[in-house]
């Protein structure tokens, strides 16, 4: 039973981690908390569904939807964040424009998809289950685990080893200096948003595949979890978000197992509170965040 | 009197097809009725409030010519998925009755409004219905919470209001003589289903899973708990989930480890099918017993084989309905009109309209007091829910139907 | 439709608008203090449930129950403030959203609160006019707040906390007060809301409500107290307006809300209220009266400051006699500002002592030091950018402002006279530093040099006995620098001790009585300007051997 719960926790933790990585990237670079990230999550899930509905195999749908989510991220940046980027209180304005964008995107989803729940066509998803050592692992769960880890490692490598990654880190550290040494700010930020959108979108696609119920409001609960993860991990830390995502998933599951399922949602809030009071920089965060 | 307010145009069946299984093609089709000019007009004229000054009726005598029916359901917001069915059901019933000559010659004038699943909007809409539109009777709103907020208002304004989906045991029909309900609650259904299931399959232990932050599923959970007590079943695991959850794996793993003889579930909407599917995935092969929330065609459709053997305590017979021709006709008409099978919400809303039409006939008119009188006299109204009667407490008086899901369909539970 | 029917139809709507306005006021006060707190819905829930339960379970009379509910919400605000008060910005927002959700989940799970089914059986006891009467009172109380000590402290804290501290404002207690007021107002809204209708449930107090209240404030604007009210009224009316004009699709309302929000943020950052004309600030003539000050004696004893492995200051001992000017010079990075931060309590020393008039003030917090009579300007400008020059200076006087709030509530002439006097003195200071005629100009619209001068005026406003000027001559030309020298001497002559950090050597030498030279965190020379100029260690430090 505990082994199974471990698997459950890692799977949902992987989704949380991917989602939170998108949040943390944007926060690290722009000091903005992008609450429209949840809308990207939701729209990517629907995109994947629409692709599969056309008869295209789901692996391709995953790639397409993730890419589309990245583009959506770029669009968001252009419309909601670039206009306020140079303001003195850009982190507050950015939070507010992200709220506005999320409202509009949610309304659009409601208009287009209605309140109904959508599912993948029967037979379009694998339903194989691996059973071993007291554990049942579905193919989709395995896919989630693998993809989330791969993306995290990939992101770390990209940030550490590529010049694009260096540009991102430069802007995150000192935007003015980055500009001085020739970093193309607009391009790099757009690229960051592409990555962020892709990560959040992949999280949405996987979530949709795992639980096979897509609704226009499916981003709501994940947002709070994402906030808990980035606070636990440290608001601008990539490693932090990755680790904290899995930690949150596991803690939630073991809370259900050990204490009771009524307390499951309290975990995310509890984490937020305790960390903010005891160690606001989170487990891995080092940066002092700009105050409003 | 100037007409300051623009009445929303009557629409017959706003179709919205959804992309379901791979076999149905379909586009989502929206009738956007944004009327910018009307909006600006309303802004400038909002102060005068407007209204149809020519209608003097709506009070005791009724307008004679028509029965004004105010329907308010959640077309958006958390309960939107139920509201849509309800509005469809109401529209179908109104269309049929009007096509058949109306209520003793009086046509039903249907007003439809969206509460957005919010108490405040429900209140505002009700006030408009009562005071401005002069409705003779109200059907809805969708949620118990909304119902509790508006029932006292309708009651003191002496306007009959009929709930087609309120799940709460108290706070609605017990408020006063003008509040009625055609929906059987889980409190009424579940004990019967558990009883029947235990009798046939003989469970000794069971696990319970219910939604803790939705009054509907919370009430259902409580009903299961007391039913378990009544029948001497030992609840070896009690787990909860929150309304937005999709991942039930941790709760189900815990339940699987407790090895129950049956799984009782009170869930609604999208979670229902997911729970069934995930339960089977988690290795829970025992029978599942569910409440009203399981009485929706999407459950057998979406859960597929996993749903085989699920026992449902229902307020409406979703099975082929062979022994209820009214039900069969309703299912056929609804499917033809909306291109999908009806669910319990549609059936109850449809029946509510037929009940109030009958009440108007019995009461001798289309006015509020006459409808109220008629409601008190309602006896064995022929509806898809069966022969419908009210209890002393103005609730639905009917035998719950116990259904079983087999091969994607509802069949009558065989004891 | 007759008027009576109109009110019947829209009675609940009017009530809802009034309640939304109360919530709007409750978020206004915290935003006015620069705190992004989204706890209003949670406080409202606490108050609402307390009031209803007292009425239905304990048979309390409604006014009493409502009062107790408000008290409960305020108490909750006080308790919540303890851990949360040091959070800023986004962190505070997240934490308060979390708080709101905790309240909602608790209400869902408790039996006494009816769980998810909520509470019924409570008859409405509150009329629409009650709501608007309360709203009127609360609005009035907030409206009269602006030019008072608390009002100015709120703006100062919102603008720049460090500068506010140096003006003697106890930032922590100001933020706490704002939080408590917010709790009380939200509690008022919640208790009234609960008794206006028949039913309350947890769902209406969740995160969505909290964000909705935030949008009231953003759309209406928070630069003035009635801004959020505009947003509240507009957004609460919106669904009804749309319904009345035939728009049924719920998503239209959402799109409209989101678009309005986006447009306001992008193009009208101060909200819709900024479209309304504002009363121009009156600038009085300068006054003649001077307030006497006692110059303070400053002594540091072996002050050291480490940051991790870096030693910024080592064994620094300087002495400033009362009424004299001490110049503090040294190459960049020598530790001058660090020393000043240590003296003013911004960054206390790692070891050593700071003594003012013989009193050990080493670990005194900045705001207390400021009240002791220490004032300063900042190397990186910390002007209150959204306030006018006059308001900047007046913010510096908050510790000396007489308590005019109650007089203002009663519109007594005494209050107006006091404020006029304060403003006149502020104008005098602005004249003194060379900003005559620029009193009404916003801080961020002044030139760089003018902003530096403004900081000096603001520093003088609290009537300090010790003034620390951190690079006041930056960006000045020779003429301005010469006038600055005169200003510094005049400041000292009017009874203050001055510490002057400067790179401009001629300013330092002409303005100072004594000079101390720092290099690599150590004092390498201290004496009169002439002595210092020729000391070999100093020459070497500046020119290199």
State the main characteristics.
heterotrimer; A: two-stranded antiparallel ribbon; globular; B: alpha/beta; Rossmann fold; seven-stranded mixed sheet; five-stranded parallel sheet; 39% helix
Helix count of chain A equals: 11
Oligomer: heterotrimer
Number of domains of chain C: 3
The dominant shape of chain A is globular
Radius of gyration over C-alpha positions of chain C, nearest whole angstrom? 28 Å
Number of domains of chain A: 1
Helix proportion of chain A: over 70%
Query: What is the topology, as strand order, of the major beta sheet of chain A?
Result: 1-2
Give the overall shape of chain C, derived from the CA principal axes.
elongated
Mean pLDDT of chain A: 89
Strand content of chain C: 5-15%
Strand order of the largest sheet of chain C: 7-8-9-4-10-11
Which percent range describes the beta-strand content of chain A?
Answer: under 5%
Unreliable spans of chain A are: none
- Report the sheet with the most strands of chain A, covering strand number, pairing sense and barrel closure: 2 strands, antiparallel
**Overall helicity of chain C:** 55-70%
What is the alpha-carbon Rg of chain A in Å?
A: 19 Å
Indicate the structural class of chain A: mainly alpha
Number of E-state strands of chain A: 2
Report on this structure.
Chain A is built from 11 helices and 2 strands. By secondary structure, chain A is mainly alpha-helical. The mean pLDDT of chain A is 89. Chain B has 2 domains: 188 residues, Response regulator (Rossmann fold); 129 residues, 3-Layer(aba) Sandwich (Rossmann fold). Chain B starts with 35 loop residues before the first helix and ends with a strand. Chain C has 545 residues and is of the alpha/beta class. Chain C folds into 3 domains: 199 residues, no CATH class; 161 residues, 3-Layer(aba) Sandwich (Rossmann fold), CATH 3.40.50.300; 75 residues, no CATH class. In chain C, the strands form 2 sheets. In chain C, strands 7-8-9-4-10-11 form a 6-stranded mixed beta sheet, sandwiched between helices. In chain C, strands 1, 2, 3, 5 and 6 form a 5-stranded antiparallel beta sheet that branches. The chains are: A mainly alpha (292), B alpha/beta (415), C alpha/beta (545). Chains B and C meet through α1, β2, α3, α4 and α6 of B and α1, α4, α10 and α11 of C.
């Amino acid at each position: 039973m505990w082994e199974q719960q471990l698997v459950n926790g890692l799977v949902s933790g992987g989704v949380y981690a991917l989602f939170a990585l998108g949040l943390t990237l944007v926060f690290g670079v722009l000091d903005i908390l992008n609450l429209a990230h949840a809308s990207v999550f939701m729209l990517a899930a629907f995109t994947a569904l629409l692709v599969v509905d056309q008869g295209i195999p789901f692996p391709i749908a995953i790639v397409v939807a993730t890419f589309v989510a990245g583009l959506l991220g770029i669009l968001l940046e252009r419309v909601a964040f670039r206009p306020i980027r140079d303001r003195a209180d850009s982190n507050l304005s950015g939070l507010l424009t992200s709220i506005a964008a999320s409202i509009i995107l949610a309304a659009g989803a409601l208009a287009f998809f209605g309140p109904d729940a959508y599912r993948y066509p029967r037979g379009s998803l694998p339903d194989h289950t691996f059973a071993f050592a007291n554990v049942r692992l579905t193919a989709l769960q395995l896919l989630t685990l693998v993809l989330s880890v791969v993306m995290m490692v990939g992101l770390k490598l990209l940030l550490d080893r590529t010049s694009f990654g260096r540009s991102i880190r430069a802007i995150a550290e000192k935007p003015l200096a980055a500009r001085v040494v020739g970093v193309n700010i607009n391009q790099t930020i757009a690229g960051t948003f592409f990555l962020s959108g892709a990560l959040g979108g992949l999280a949405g696609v996987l979530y949709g595949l795992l639980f096979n119920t897509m609704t226009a409001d499916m981003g709501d609960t994940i947002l709070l979890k994402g906030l808990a993860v980035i606070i636990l991990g440290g608001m601008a830390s990539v490693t932090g978000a990755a680790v904290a995502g899995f930690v949150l998933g596991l803690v939630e599951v073991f809370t259900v197992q050990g204490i009771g399922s009524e307390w499951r949602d309290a975990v995310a809030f509890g984490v937020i509170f305790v960390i903010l009071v005891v160690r606001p920089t989170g487990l891995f965060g080092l940066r002092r965040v700009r105050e409003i | 009197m100037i007409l300051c307010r623009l009445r929303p145009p009557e629409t017959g069946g706003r179709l919205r097809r959804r992309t379901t299984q791979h076999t149905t093609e379909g586009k989502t089709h929206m009738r956007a009725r944004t009327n910018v000019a009307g909006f600006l007009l309303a802004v400038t004229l909002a102060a005068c409030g407007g209204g149809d000054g020519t209608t003097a009726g709506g009070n005791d005598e009724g307008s004679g010519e028509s029965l004004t029916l105010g329907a308010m359901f959640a077309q958006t917001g958390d309960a939107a998925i139920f509201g849509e069915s309800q509005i469809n059901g109401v529209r179908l019933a109104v269309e049929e009755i009007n096509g058949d000559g109306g209520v003793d010659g009086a046509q039903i004038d249907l007003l439809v409004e969206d509460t957005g699943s919010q108490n405040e909007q429900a209140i505002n809409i009700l006030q408009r219905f009562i005071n401005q539109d002069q409705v003779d009777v109200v059907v809805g709103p969708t949620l118990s919470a909304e119902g509790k907020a508006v029932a006292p208002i309708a009651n003191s304004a002496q306007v009959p209001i009929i709930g087609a989906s309120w799940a709460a045991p108290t706070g609605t029909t017990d408020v006063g003589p003008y509040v009625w309900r055609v929906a059987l609650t889980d409190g009424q259904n579940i004990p019967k289903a558990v009883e029947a299931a235990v009798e046939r399959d003989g469970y000794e232990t069971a696990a319970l899973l219910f939604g803790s932050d939705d009054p509907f599923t919370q009430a259902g959970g409580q009903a299961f708990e007391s039913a378990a007590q009544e029948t001497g079943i030992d609840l070896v695991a009690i787990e909860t989930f929150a309304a937005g959850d999709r991942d039930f794996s941790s709760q189900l793993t815990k339940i699987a480890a407790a090895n129950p003889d049956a799984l009782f579930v009170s869930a609604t909407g999208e979670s229902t099918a997911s729970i069934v599917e995930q339960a089977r995935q988690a290795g829970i092969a025992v029978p599942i017993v569910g409440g009203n929330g399981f009485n929706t065609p999407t459950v057998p459709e979406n859960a597929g084989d996993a749903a085989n053997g699920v026992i449902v305590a229902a307020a409406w017979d979703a099975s082929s309905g062979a022994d209820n021709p009214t039900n069969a006709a309703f299912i056929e008409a609804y499917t033809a009109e909306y291109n999908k099978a009806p669910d319990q919400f549609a059936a109850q809303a449809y029946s509510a309209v037929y009940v109030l039409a009958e009440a108007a006939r019995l009461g001798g008119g289309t006015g509020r007091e006459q409808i109220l009188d008629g409601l008190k006299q309602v006896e064995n109204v022929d509806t898809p829910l069966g022969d419908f009667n009210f209890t002393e407490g103005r609730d639905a008086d009917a035998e719950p139907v116990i259904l079983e899901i087999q091969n994607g369909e509802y069949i009558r539970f065989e004891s | 439709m007759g008027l009576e029917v109109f009110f019947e139809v829209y009675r609940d709507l009017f009530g809802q608008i009034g309640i939304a306005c109360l919530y709007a006021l409750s978020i206004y006060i915290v935003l006015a203090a620069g705190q992004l707190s989204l706890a209003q819905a949670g406080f409202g829930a606490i108050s609402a449930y307390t009031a209803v339960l007292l009425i239905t379970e304990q048979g309390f009379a409604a006014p009493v129950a409502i009062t107790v509910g408000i008290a409960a919400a305020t108490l909750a605000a006080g308790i919540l403030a303890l851990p949360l008060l040091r959070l800023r910005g986004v962190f505070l927002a997240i934490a308060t959203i979390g708080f709101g959700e905790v309240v909602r989940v608790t209400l869902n799970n408790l039996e006494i609160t009816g769980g998810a089914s909520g509470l019924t059986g409570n008859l409405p006891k509150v009329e629409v006019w009650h709501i608007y009467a309360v709203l009127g009172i609360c609005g009035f109380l907030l409206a009269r707040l602006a030019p008072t000590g608390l009002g100015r402290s709120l703006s100062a804290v919102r603008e720049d906390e460090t500068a506010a501290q140096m003006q003697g404002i106890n930032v922590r207690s100001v933020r706490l007060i704002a939080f408590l007021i917010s709790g009380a107002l939200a509690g008022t809204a919640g208790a009234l809301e609960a008794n206006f209708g028949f039913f309350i449930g947890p769902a209406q107090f969740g995160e969505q409500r909290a964000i909705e209240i935030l949008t009231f404030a953003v759309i209406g604007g928070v630069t003035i107290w009635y801004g959020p009210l505009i947003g509240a009224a507009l957004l609460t009316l919106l669904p009804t307006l749309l319904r009345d004009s035939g728009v049924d699709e719920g998503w239209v309302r959402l799109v409209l809300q989101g678009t309005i929000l986006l447009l306001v943020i992008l193009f009208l950052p101060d909200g819709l209220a900024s479209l309304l004309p504002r009363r121009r600030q009156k600038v009085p003539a300068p006054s003649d009266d001077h307030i006497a000050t006692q110059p303070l004696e400053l002594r540091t004893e072996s002050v050291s400051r480490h940051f991790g492995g870096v030693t910024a200051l080592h064994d620094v001992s300087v002495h400033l006699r009362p009424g004299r000017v001490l110049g503090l010079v040294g190459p960049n990075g020598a530790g001058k500002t660090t020393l000043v931060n240590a003296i003013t309590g911004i960054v206390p020393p790692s070891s050593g002592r700071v003594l003012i008039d013989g009193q050990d003030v080493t670990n005194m917090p900045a705001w207390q030091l400021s009240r002791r009579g220490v004032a300063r300007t900042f190397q990186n400008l910390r002007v209150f950018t959204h306030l006018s020059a006059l308001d900047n200076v007046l913010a510096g006087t908050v510790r000396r402002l007489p308590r005019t709030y109650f007089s203002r509530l009663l519109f007594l002439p005494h209050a107006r006279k006091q404020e006029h006097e304060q403003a006149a003195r502020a104008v005098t200071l602005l004249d003194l530093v060379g900003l005559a005629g620029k009193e009404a100009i916003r801080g961020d619209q002044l030139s760089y040099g003018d902003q530096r001068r403004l900081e000096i005026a603001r520093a003088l406003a609290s009537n300090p006995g010790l003034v620390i000027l951190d690079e006041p001559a930056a960006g000045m030309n020779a003429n301005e620098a010469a006038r600055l020298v005169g200003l510094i001497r005049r400041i000292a002559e009017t009874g203050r001790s001055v510490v002057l950090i400067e790179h401009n050597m001629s300013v330092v030498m002409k303005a100072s009585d004594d000079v101390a030279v720092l290099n690599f965190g150590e004092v390498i020379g201290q004496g009169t300007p002439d002595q210092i100029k020729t000391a070999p260690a100093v020459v070497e430090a500046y020119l290199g051997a």
